[in-house]
Structures are given as C-alpha cells and as structure tokens.
Amino acid sequence: MITAAGRLRRLYRRLLDSYGPQGWWPARGPTEVLIGAVLTQHTSWRNVEQALLRLRAVSRLTPAAVLAIAPEELARLIHPAGYPRVKAHRLRQLLSWCHARGGVAALRHLPTDTLRSELLGVHGVGPETADSILLYALQRPLFVVDAYTRRLFSRLGLIGGAEHYDAIRRPVERALRGATQDLNEFHALIVRHGKEPCRPRPHCAACQLVKICRYPVSLRPHD
DNA sequence: ACCCAGGGTCATA
DNA sequence: TATGACCATGGG
C-alpha cells in the first residue's frame, strides 16, 4: 500500500456521497454478526440470508441456543449458505469460544489486541472474519479487507495486488484516523460499489474510473 | 456450461 | 513463502 492517506479519504468521501450510509452490519443482534461473518465466507449475502432465516425459525440466535443444535442438524439448517459441514463446524468453534468467554456482552471488556489474536486462534476464523466481528459486533476501529477491497484498490493503483492483509488494513486505519464509524462505512461502501459494478458516464462518480469500471466482476484481485 | 459470491485450511514444493 | 485443491450452494 503506497502512502496515500489523502486519496483514501477522498475515495471514502466520494463513495459516501454516491451511495449514502449503508448502516452495516445487516443483523438483528451481535451474535448474528458472528454467525453471518462465518456464513458469508466466499458466499453471496443472498444465500446467507436464507440460511439465517432457517436458523431463526428454529432457534434463538444466542451462542448457547445455537450450540444446543446437533452439528448435523445445524449443517442441514445452514445448507443454503454452502459448505454446510465446514461452516457448521466453524460456527460451533466460534460460538464455543464466545460462550466460554461469557457471551458477546462480556467480550466488550477485553482489549482489541487480545480479542483479535483469540479470534484468529479459532479454527475457521481468518483475518477478514475476525475483523468483521471486531468492527461490526464490537465496534473496534479496524478496517476489513476483502476481495472487493483488493480489486478496487488494485484498479486504482493503490496496491499492486500481492500485499498482505495487514499491509492494506493499517494504512486505511491511519488514513481514517481510527474512526470506527468511518471504517464501518468505508468497508460497507466498498462492498456496495463492488456488488453494483458502476457504469462510467463518462466515469464512475464513486471511484472515478473510466475504463476499468466497464469490466464488471470478471477482474480478479491480482488482475 | 460456465463464472461468481462480503474466505479459510491443508498439503505440497 | 506461495501456489493449488478442497469445501457447496444459488444466481447470472
């Protein structure tokens, strides 16, 4: 990531002006953020919603209640989100950790560094899932780097494409001065912009790209 | 019949 | 360190 705090701030401002606040995370409660963060791994939010509907229909979405569901049954319930057995196992690992820690409310007392390293220690929780939970369930000032972020930053020349996760995350956190609400909106807006590929007329008002925006979603992070 | 979606782990070189 | 296979469903 080249040191481009000003460019990052202007990009954020343009995205916000174009789309308005996104009001993330789309969940009813904090535990649902944890569950959704696992379910949405390499999966469209549309499919995740179906899985959440099926889960909500049979259980309260608290760690204890979901852990009371038999693993095979849990897998069956979440199957619209894909990778049912993998995700059922990951959900159980994550919710067991949370439950052992006294529930989501109890997590608020712990420092961000501690929470992040413990989350990364949970099997099936990588950096994006951990940071989504920390930002959207616990309001910690972290920037979430996902495939849309890499693609957009790479198209804008802000990164080469091979940067490590933290090498993208930290500069954005500095550029936005660790303001939780801005980090929240920035990531949500990047996803919004990525989901609705902008049509240049003559250029995209949000990212200001002319040519690249005409290539919808086919470009990969390293293109 | 492809390609893609708000990733992560594991085996291998 | 860095690739590739694997996990699996639903929509374009």
Quickly list its features:
single chain; 223 residues; mainly alpha; Endonuclease III, domain 1; 2 domains; 0% strand; globular; disordered C terminus; DNA-binding
Brief overview:
By secondary structure, the protein is mainly alpha-helical.
Structural class: mainly alpha
Calculate Rg over CA atoms: 18 Å
Shape estimate: globular
Give the amount of beta strand, in percent: under 5%
User: What sequence of helices (H) and strands (E) makes up the elements?
Assistant: HHHHHHHHHHHH
Low-confidence segments = 214-223
Terminal residue distance: 16 Å
Number of H- or I-type helical stretches: 12
Q: What percentage of residues falls in helices of 4 or more residues?
A: 55-70%
- Whole-number total of structural domains: 2
Overall number of strands:
0
Overall mean pLDDT: 91
The CATH class of the largest domain: Mainly Alpha
Largest sheet, in brief, is: none
For this structure, the CATH topology of the largest domain is Endonuclease III, domain 1
Instruction: Tell me the name of the CATH homologous superfamily of the largest domain.
Output: Hypothetical protein, domain 2
- CATH architecture descriptor of the largest domain: Orthogonal Bundle
